[in-house]
Amino acid sequence: MRKNIIATTAAILAASALILNGCGSTSTAEVVTTAAVETTTAAPETTTAAETTKEETTTAAEETTTAAEETTTAAEETTEEETTKEETTAAETTKEETTAEETTTAAETTAAQSTGADPSAIYSKVTGLLPGMITVDANYISNYYGIDASQLEGYVFAMAEDVTKADTVAILKAKDASAVAALAGQLSAVQQQKAQELQDYMPEQYQIVAASTVKTIGNYVYLVMSSNGAAIEQTIAASVG
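The chain above was modelled as a monomer; its predicted structure follows.
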């Protein structure tokens, strides 16, 4: 475009020179020369305007691109926030489900441990098969036999009022199954002690003690020393089974 303007200007100047040669007028030549100069000046201005327009267009395009990038970034951030929110919700849901399962398991475990009759209720079913009996407390069984009542969910420890009789009924219900073996050992010690007391002085009562054995069912540990031992043990087994 600029080359075309220069060529046009040169043509105007040539024509002006011919006119001046023919007319011999200095003033007219100055006018023509001034017009040519002004035309030449207009060419750079036009070019500058075009360049300015091009720069403005480029800047607008860059601004549009930047705006598009910002929009894309905002969309990505929104997507990330939604994903994080969904992951958090899923984690909270899983945690709630796990807590519910643990609570249910704990409740089931407690219920399982609490099943079966209370030792006192069982003992009340067999009193008719025994002579006059006395029951002893936690201090007694702890001091004489080393049985810790805090490990028991319930218990009965009964002995004949008449010291010449071997009748003894001990029914222990452990809180935890892990304590059953130790409790069985402690009741075995009770039996052995009773046998030593009666062996040399009361052979008949000793035979009753010698025939007895410690038995366990679940969390129950029991020892029956009585002439009616078989019937009493049958009642206990039916109550806790």
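Confidence is low (pLDDT under 50) at residues 15-50, 103-114.
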